[in-house]
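Incident log entry.

Two folding requests arrived from the same account within the same minute. Monitoring flagged them as a possible duplicate submission, but the sequences differ. Recording both here for audit purposes.

Request one:
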Amino acid sequence: MLSELSTRNKIVGIKQLRKALRDGKAAKVFVAADADPKLTQPILASCQETGVPVEEVSTMQELGKACEIEVGAAVAALLGEQTNL
């Protein structure tokens, strides 16, 4: 649920998400359906490899709003309960 993004530890953006996936810190990933597949496909592949669940969001604007930022977001992730980046 998108409401999780306003209440839990999160990261927004491709670079931060790649690092979180690599370090095993991402608990759940959100991907905007209208984001550039060149950016999102590697993230989706990493999620599949690591077993991190993925939720698709309709638009980048909707995902950005859920993350409480003023611009659209291609990807975001919830971090594990005791994880801080």
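Request two (distinct sequence, not a duplicate):
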Amino acid sequence: MARAHLNDLYLDYDDHGSGESVILVHGHPFDRSMWRPQIRHLVEANYRVVVPDLRGYGKTEVRPGVTTLSVFADDIIALLEHLGIRRTVVVGLSMGGQIVMDLAARFADRITAIVLADTFPDAETSDGRQSRMETADQLVRDGMSGYTDHNISKMLSPTTMTERPDVVDHVRTMMLVAPPAGAAAALRGRALRREYVSTLEGLEIPALIVVGADDEFTTVTDAERMHHSIASSELVVIDDTGHLPNLERPDTFNAALTAFLDAKAPTS
């Protein structure tokens, strides 16, 4: 574990291995521990793996209020500068995928390839904006327990809920210990997000799109639409999997990830 002072906050991260760099960007309301199955796999495949806790999550400092996707993206660029990484592959899941899209929109020259897992590029709807704002207020008022109980079965497929108690426990723990003020700030920021459809349509770098076949938050249709938008993209649909395929079916996810990286990611 390491810590860096970036953009007026202390950000915690892990930096493993050597070789081509890969940044893993977690989703909401999780932390960098969600990438445990990928870290060892990628290091053994001779990649350097950098895994931050986003601001307001895990061990990184909380900044209450509103945290936009661009603020998260700026933190990642600052971390790259701190580590002396000029160009990198960026992998993001859910909110992390939207952060990757923001990076691609504003810092395309820093990215060699992207992986978008269980995410979507659209701006928030008016109803969705109101719902996220109300949920943010609820988290600050009531904490993470009720939110976790309500959403965990939506995060994971029925198969995972029944057959993988270890994964269920890990996901539940990440959700319960997420700082409410940090999670709320991220929800408010996502409520205000721009659209990234135009970014994907103009993307000139390789992209891998992964989605769980049973994902309730981002559907296979969402993933197919992104696949058709990006000229140089591949699509992998993982069966019996919900919103977190990297944890629910890590062997399948890892195989798709390294196959893509080995074939597509150019040397920086």
